[in-house]
Design brief:
Blueprint: E1 9-10, E2 16-24, H1 28-37, E3 43-46, E4 63-64, H2 73-83, H3 90-109, E5 116-117, E6 120-121, E7 123-124, E8 134-135, H4 142-154, E9 160-163, E10 167-174, E11 177-184, E12 190-200, H5 221-228, E13 233-234, E14 239-246, H6 258-262, E15 266-268, H7 288-301, E16 307-310, H8 316-322, H9 324-332, E17 342-351, E18 354-356, E19 368-370, E20 375-376, H10 388-404, E21 418-419, E22 424-425, H11 431-445, H12 452-463, E23 471-472, H13 476-497, H14 515-518, E24 521-525, E25 529-533
Parallel strand pairs: 2-3, 2-12, 3-9, 12-19, 18-20, 22-23
Antiparallel strand pairs: 1-21, 4-8, 5-6, 7-8, 10-11, 11-12, 13-18, 13-24, 14-17, 15-16, 16-17, 24-25
Helix pairs in contact: 1-4, 1-10, 2-3, 3-10, 5-13, 11-12, 11-13, 12-13
Enzyme class: oxidoreductase
Pfam family, one: FAD_binding_2
Pathway: Cofactor biosynthesis; NAD(+) biosynthesis; iminoaspartate from L-aspartate (oxidase route): step 1/1
Length: 538
């Protein structure tokens, strides 16, 4: 069994720091929620690297909200439910589509400069959206512009303290109440950070896979520490693989935004044939899981490691204006989007599941909240609609702050909490090698396409790594690997349990969606194991 705590400690022997609100993570969820919370509370933001290093920074396409008079919350709702493949929470989706526009206006007030055309906000359309409702910034650098604006708001803020290069090893709980976190400082000192409320905004787990659009920091820490603290997890089997990441020698798996297809790009196999008409009536704008599997099928059929994305029929100036970041990045590797077909392949992109929350971001552990990709609010169901993630982060971040203002003072002190285990030294564990092995294993056994045989093989191999939890872990790399192993095990177990195909979970041995049996959620909790839940799903 995965232990309650990763390291040995005694709260009474640790230096203690007190604050009102602890925010773990510095993407859009962490920054926005911290700013809102700071209106009434003292806030400490913890980030394991620098403030601007998060998945949000790399979000290109944009943020979805109903702005156009031709659009409506009902249209946005229908699109979200369609993409979510029967597992969205109707109440969560209603909140997102109705409160999103107000929150986007607040981002603008906070300094985010979205692109404007003819004096109005520029809107584009992405896959599975029925209307143009995607706001973008600097063409294809939306995420970076948002975190830039929010970070500027933090400068000199009297109520916000930023802890860069700090690592949250575990959450500290007493009973079923989170009273703070065990944090390692850059100098190696550990502290007990005590708070009225703790908000997980730690992002996703793309690093579970060898090929991912996520930065190195996306190692599933928030999901793992919440699981160890007793929180309920939901829907971990649903992983969105972005269909089009750059696949070129010497280049990272750089995201080629869905907005490129939204603006008319087509997919071709290595023979030059356009192929999406074989797979879906929406062609290149079909839901991401369908496009990703179609690409994998074409790659196998043509014995190639990639397909091509072709937007050469568009005017060069249009491409350069609309996608300056993608254009410049590709050009840096000798690829000219205006003249060349761009080699692409699927890569792990987004985790639909996570720590289960209510409609105000509250988890099953009192005083512990989750926001952004680490959470499972019910908005995304089995497959996230493009650009809904940034909207979700701000909508539910605001709701979390509303709920925190209702909390009673924290009375527990944590005195007496300790962990003393007989652990072997982990110095001999080749962590970098094991991390790579885990990533390769997840691609092969729990990737775009899955089967009972492959998942069982993967689970057995992962279980052979369990002894690391009996080891004395001292470094960030070791804790990250332990968190990745935790997430990989839970994801594989839930993927094995769901004997159907739906959204971001595709089983070759159960290729059909089975609403009669599987229109329900798989829950996982450390002490109770695997459970099932029927929600207010549509």
């Amino acid at each position: 069994m995965i232990p309650r705590y990763l390291v040995d400690f005694d709260i009474s022997e640790l230096p203690a720091v007190e604050t009102d609100v602890i925010v773990i993570g510095s993407g859009i969820a962490g920054l926005y929620t911290a700013i809102k919370a700071s209106e009434r509370h003292r806030v400490i933001i913890i980030t394991k690297k620098a403030l601007l290093e998060s998945n949000t920074r790399y979000a290109q396409g944009g943020i979805a909200a109903v702005i156009s008079e031709e659009d409506s919350p009902e249209y946005h709702r229908q699109d979200t439910l369609m993409a979510g493949a029967g597992l969205c929470s109707s109440s969560s989706v209603d909140i997102l589509v109705n409160e999103g526009p107000v929150c986007v206006q607040e981002l603008i007030t906070l300094g985010t400069a979205f692109d404007v055309e003819n004096g109005e906000l520029a809107l584009t359309r992405e896959g599975a959206h029925s209307h143009r409702r995607i706001l973008h910034a600097n063409g294809d650098a939306t995420g970076y512009e948002i975190v830039r604006a929010l970070s500027d708001q933090l400068a000199g803020h009297s109520n916000i303290e930023i802890w860069n290069e700090h690592f949250v090893i575990d959450l500290i709980t007493e009973g079923n109440e989170c009273i703070g976190a065990l944090v390692q400082r850059p100098d190696g000192q550990r502290v007990f950070l005590r708070g009225l409320a703790t908000i997980l905004c730690s992002g996703g787990a793309g690093q579970l896979y060898r090929y991912t659009t996520n930065p190195d920091v996306a190692t599933g820490d928030g999901v793992a520490i919440a699981y160890r603290a007793g929180a309920v997890l939901r829907d971990l089997e649903f992983i969105q693989f972005h269909p089009t990441s750059l696949c070129y020698p010497g280049a990272p798996r750089f995201l080629i935004s869905e907005a490129v297809r939204g603006e008319g790009a087509v997919l071709r196999n290595v023979k030059g044939e356009r192929f999406m008409e074989k797979y879906h009536e929406l062609l290149e704008l079909a839901p991401r899981d369908i496009v990703a599997r179609a690409i994998v099928s074409e790659m196998e059929e043509t014995k190639s490691s990639f397909v091509f994305l072709d937007i050469t029929h568009e005017a060069p100036e249009t491409i350069k204006h609309r996608f300056p970041t993608i254009y410049d990045t590709c050009l840096g590797y000798g690829l000219d989007m205006t003249a060349d077909w761009i080699p692409v392949a699927p890569a792990a992109h987004y985790m639909m599941g996570g720590v289960r929350t209510g409609l105000h971001g509250e988890t099953s552990v009192h005083r512990l909240f989750a926001c952004g990709e680490v959470s499972s609010t019910g908005v995304h169901g089995a497959n996230r609609l493009a650009s809904n993630s940034l909207s979700e982060a701000i909508v539910f971040g605001r709701r979390i702050v509303e709920r925190i203002s209702e909390l009673s003072p924290l009375e527990r002190t944590g005195e007496g909490i300790h962990c003393q285990e007989a652990r072997e030294d982990a110095v001999a564990w080749p962590i970098a090698e094991r991390r790579l092995e885990l990533q390769k294993l997840m691609v092969r056994k729990a990737g775009v396409r899955r089967s009972e045989e492959g998942l069982n093989q993967g689970l057995n191999e992962l279980r052979r790594q369990l002894p690391i939890f009996n080891a004395a872990l001292h470094t960030r790399e070791q804790w990250e690997y332990a968190n990745m192993l935790t997430c990989a095990l839970l994801l594989t177990e839930s993927a094995l349990a769901r004997k159907e195909s739906r959204g971001g979970h595709y089983r070759e041995d159960y290729p059909q969606r089975d609403d009669a049996v599987w229109r329900k959620h798989i829950l996982q909790q450390r002490e109770k194991g695997m459970l099932e839940e029927i929600g207010d799903d549509v």
